[in-house]
Design brief:
The complex is a heterodimer of chains A (233) and B (320). Helix content of chain A is 78%, strand content 0%. By secondary structure, chain A is mostly helical. Chain A has 2 domains: 51 residues, no CATH class; 175 residues, no CATH class. The longest helix of chain A is centred in the last third of the chain and has 38 residues. Chain B is an all-alpha fold and 320 residues long. Chain B has 3 domains: 69 residues; 87 residues, no CATH class; 127 residues, no CATH class. Chain B is globular and about 70 Å long. Classes of the chains: A mainly alpha (233), B mainly alpha (320). At the A-B interface, helix 1, helix 2, helix 3, helix 4 and helix 5 of A face helix 1, helix 3, helix 4, helix 5 and helix 6 of B.
Chain lengths: 233, 320
């Protein structure tokens, strides 16, 4: 039971809004120490895994210089003005389209996208642009709401599409695990039985995005009706 | 033999991050000049020299980064963003061409992933076949970068300035994903997963086939939320709950169990700040005031999805 102390430290640390890096490192060190490792053992492990997982920072750091130039030369503004020409576009529909493309391409084994590669430069500005074209200037809260959902469309699309392709990390990991315990499974079975859940994920996101569209409409509609009340009063 | 390995791409990352550190050092008005310089400098060193440094040295360097960050000494500088009017006039001039470099990144990554791993001259591979996707992403960003430079005719200092501004806006959170995987690694060597699966097994009447499915799915979701990573949870929970209860005791189909079990884990990933690279770093990247906004947008999708996935597993795993 004492080994669970790390989870407690993380919960308390997040609860008191301490610096996340500090909380994580402390939780690791304490868990290591109560499990019988020395301080140096724990730091060795931190160092080793930090180096092994450098690939996690790779997509963001590599794309920032390119996205940086393009944003300076009007990428976001262009994405917004382009989407304004599409009359049927709403923020929710833009994000749903992205989610469908992301999920289908991931299911075919293609990794086109990412928060730095597509969400920040293209999906979020297009969704904002579509909402602005319909409802005029957006409030900060509405913009935050749209951006957060744009990030969600990336995560849901990628997670639940990826596992339908047989050669992805997740499927290979499951196969490797079963091989190691002597259970024989087919990668195709693991991939195809994921489809019903993947479709459910798409439908649920559709529902959330259409609710977002309604919230945006309400926020701008309410703003206008308040204005008219002010003028009559 | 491989000509281009992941290490070659890491050198490139090291150079990009080193430029951030140098810009910070040269910025006399930087609010946390020394702290930020050390933080970005050490981070650059982990990419440039990481494969030669002994792990314990890296561990102590990481500790130093954490201490600098927790004293609030890693803040963003005041790199100026170009005015909206100027950006719009550039956009007007370049029109749709501005999208070209951005689209080159995914297109070349896909082409590279499909082809580069297969090209070899005798024993010499062009790229390390184990890391084709990441290396292709690296190559595609270099090509996109060149295309962006030619297209915009920007000064060479522009990408450095912009990537420094964007990276400083993300700040210390950029190392959070790597730190959390280290924590996950320590949790698993310490045997935290075993304790969790024992508790779940003791608390629930898992002799009912339905309860076994609930225990496995909830175990995957909760343990993923703790670890921030469904892959780390998979071996522990499948070995501790799934295999003994669903497959051996109740005769469930292991392939279906694994596929839907991993999805139960992903539902957890959608709901936890521990999955920083999916939930927290994007919030910083999009300049959201509320760091948990992405999680809050995802919880209403994740909870019904988790329940639907659990029911699907119950109906499918014992019948096929």
């Amino acid at each position: 039971m004492i080994k669970l102390i790390g989870i407690l430290i993380v919960a308390i640390g997040f609860g008191f809004r301490l610096n996340t890096l500090l909380v994580v490192m402390l939780a690791g060190i304490v868990t290591g120490l109560v499990s019988g490792f020395s301080f140096n053992d724990v730091l060795t492990q931190f160092g080793q895994i930090f180096i092994d997982n450098r690939y996690m920072s790779l997509p963001i750091i590599l794309t920032l210089p390119v996205i940086g130039i393009l944003e300076r030369y009007g990428l976001k503004e262009r994405a917004e003005s382009l989407i304004k020409k599409a009359k049927a576009a709403t923020a929710g529909r833009v994000m749903l389209s992205y989610l469908i493309i992301r999920e289908l391409s991931a299911a075919l084994g293609l990794n086109i996208g990412g928060h730095a590669q597509t969400v920040r430069p293209l999906v979020a500005p297009m969704a904002e642009g579509a909402a602005a074209a319909k409802h005029g200037e957006l409030s900060e809260e509405v913009k935050e709401d749209i951006k957060a959902h744009a990030a969600a469309s990336e995560n849901v699309g990628w997670f639940f599409g990826e596992d339908i392709f047989i050669a992805t990390g997740a499927i290979l990991l499951m196969k490797g695990f079963y091989d190691s315990v002597g259970v024989d499974v087919s990668v195709w079975d693991m991939a195809l039985w994921g489809i019903p859940t993947a479709i459910t994920a798409l439908l649920l996101s559709w529902w959330r995005f259409s609710l977002l569209d309604k919230r945006i409409q309400k926020a701008s509609g309410a703003g206008k009706s308040n204005d008219s009340k002010k003028t009559t009063a | 033999m491989n000509i281009i390995t992941l290490d070659s791409i890491y050198y490139l990352l090291g150079i990009i991050v080193a430029f951030v550190a140098i810009r910070v050092l040269l910025d006399k008005n930087h609010p946390t000049r020394i702290g930020s310089f050390l933080f970005w400098g050490i981070f650059a060193a982990t990419f440039l020299f990481g494969q030669w440094m002994p792990p314990i040295a890296v561990g102590y360097l990481v500790l130093i980064m954490v201490i600098i960050a927790s004293f609030g000494k890693v803040k963003a500088g005041k790199e100026k963003e170009l005015k909206k009017e100027e950006r719009e006039s550039h956009a007007e001039r370049l029109k749709g061409k501005i999208f070209l470099p951005a689209i080159l990144i995914p297109v070349i990554t896909v082409i590279g992933t499909l082809t580069l791993g297969k090209i070899h001259f005798g024993d010499v591979q062009i790229v390390d076949p184990k890391n084709v996707t990441l290396i292709s992403l690296g190559i595609s960003t270099i090509i996109a970068y060149i295309a962006a430079q030619i297209l915009t005719k920007a000064k060479a200092s522009v990408p450095m300035q912009e990537s420094s501004r964007l990276m400083q806006a993300i700040g210390w959170a950029i190392i959070l994903p790597q730190m959390l995987s280290a924590l996950g690694g320590i949790f698993s060597t310490a045997g935290v997963g075993k304790v969790v699966s024992e508790i779940v097994g003791d608390l629930l009447p898992t002799n009912y086939a339905f309860v076994a499915v609930v225990a496995y799915c909830l175990g995957m979701t909760l343990f993923t939320m703790i670890m921030g990573n469904a892959f780390a949870a998979f071996a522990v929970i499948t070995g501790g709950i799934g295999l003994p209860l669903i497959v051996h005791m109740h005769g469930g189909n292991p392939a279906i169990m694994a596929a839907l079990g991993m999805f139960a884990g992903y539902c957890g990933t959608l709901m936890t700040p521990m999955a920083a690279n999916f939930n927290i770093v994007p919030a910083m990247l999009l300049n959201l005031k509320n760091k948990n906004a992405v999680i809050q947008a995802q919880v209403p999708i994740a909870i019904p999805l988790m329940i639907a996935n659990m029911l699907l597993m119950y109906f499918l795993v014992y019948h096929f």
